[in-house]
Structure formats: structure tokens, C-alpha cells
Amino acid sequence: MATLTITDKALEYIKSHGKPVYLELFQVISCCIDIRESPSVRLGQPHDPHNYSCEEIQGIMVYIPHELPAIPLTITLSNFLGFKKLVIEGWSLA
Asked: Per residue in 10-68, pLDDT tens?
């Protein structure tokens, strides 16, 4: 299981929406090597909860895909031109 933490700003943003979050994994891209883009962080519950385990992390319910690699990841808040978005830090493409 991945080690997942949430920054203070991301935690505040999530709590302000009053919803759980989930990590959405993208399909593996195969060419010479298999790579997968960083997961998206979404507010709410996944539409396919059977593919996730649910954990409480820092007081937030987080749905984590069973396929998520066991690496340390951080959910953080990105702010660009006033638009806020939850993102993952610590992801490696390969």
C-alpha cells in the first residue's frame, strides 16, 4: 500500500467541500516500456468502489486504487490563476 499524506492546504480545501477524495489511475501506456501518468485526485466517491480500498487519512476518507504502487505520495493543492486543484506529488512515470 502506498504511503499517502495530505498537505495542510489540501486538507483545508477537502474539508471545505465536505466530501471524501479518490485517486483515479490512468491506463498504462505501452511502447518500449510501460508507463502510467500520475493519478488524478477527485472529490467524492469513485463510480467503481470495488476497485478501491477506503482509508481514513488525517481525518479524510480516501479511496485508494488497489493497483496503486507502494510509494510515498502527497496530495497537495495547486493554485493557478485562482483555480484550485488537488494534485499528487511524488509520482514517477516508470
From this structure: 999 999 999 999 999 866 555 565 566 788 999 999 999 999 999 999 999 999 999 88
Number of domains observed in the structure of the chain: 1
Buried b (16+ CB within 10 A) or exposed e, 39-57: bebeeeebeeeeebeeeee
Report DSSP letters for 2-64, one per residue. -EEEE-HHHHHHHHHHT--EEEEPPPPEESSSEE-PPPEEEES--S-GGGEEEEEETTEEEEE
Domain with 80, as residue range(s), is: 3-89
Which strands form 83-89's sheet, in the order they lie side by side? 3-6, 72-80, 83-89
CATH classification of the domain holding 57 = 2.60.300.12
Nearest to 28 by CA among 20, 13, 38, 19: 38
